[in-house]
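Let us begin with a simple case.
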Amino acid sequence: MDFQEAIYTQFAQSFEAQQQALESLPPYIEHAAKVIFNSIASGGKIVCIGNSTGSHLSQYFSTLMLDRMDRERPGLPAINLSGDGSAILAITHNDSYHDVFSKQITALGNPGDILFVVANRGNTSPIIQAIQAAHERKMSIVALTSPEAKNVSSLTSQDDTEIKINLLGTARVHECQLSVIHILIDLLERQLFGCED
């Protein structure tokens, strides 16, 4: 195996995936940034969840919200439900694994808050129940998905925003989702703090 060729192929595939995302996603990303801005400007917060490796991306998004990316600025209200191991274990033990997010959303979510979901598998019941609980709490959904997350897509309403990475392959999907997260943070900072390059 030629490692140099393999490296070149990986970069080339990544560039191609980013180009494809650039051609289709900007309107959805812009809409999501405006929805998140409106929630924060009205005193709401962003509640983040994810399944599988999407849980790491959701945690990364909440970290960038609470801290910052490149610009010095105040923290923004966000909480990541995927990272509270004690709560997840307690809910799984006392109730059900399917309730690990929905029970927390019912307790913490308020009307006007946003549920930020990174879902790359559609049949994960905790994600499905979380979206249903968020709708019951009058929360809007911003979902980063892939073609495999069909159940998540079917649950989003006209008040929700789905940013679907229409690609196959875990690495390419995650790379594009990471770019979307960085762009969302940049757009939020521009709206909230008038940040310029």
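The second case is a distinct protein. As before, the sequence precedes its structure tokens.
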Amino acid sequence: MTKHTEFLAGERPEDVLFFLHEDAVSNPGALAEYADEVEDGHVLVLPGDDGRSAFQSATGIDPMGLAQQAMGTEGDIGDDLTSAVCPVAEEEPESDHTTRFVFAFAEEQNEDVGGLYAEGDVVHAYAVCACGERYSDKWVVGE
């Protein structure tokens, strides 16, 4: 089982995951020992603080700033965290809507909070599209 698979199954709540599209990485060979190669890029699963720092180093984007910017716009991020559907793609069909980056973390089940959080561990995902749009999605692990 890969770290990517374990994260998706809710088995790595202390870690963060990020996806980097192959076109967004200048030296993919440098990621080989840390990342799982997927169809359109690479997935890294790293301990929280290290993962946030690595994401910022790789993308130039502060992950917490990304979360704040993206929360206001809902999108559809694939449950494998390697693809997404940009919410402005239909309005701007002439633009490139390739998913460049996805940053995600899981929050453990918390019945006191209610809503989704009472149902199970919740994945929070934030995507950056090639067109510049930033958006978010969240779901209960396994649904």
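The first helix runs from residue 3 to 8. The two ends are 20 Å apart (CA to CA).
Keep these points in mind for the review questions at the end of the chapter.
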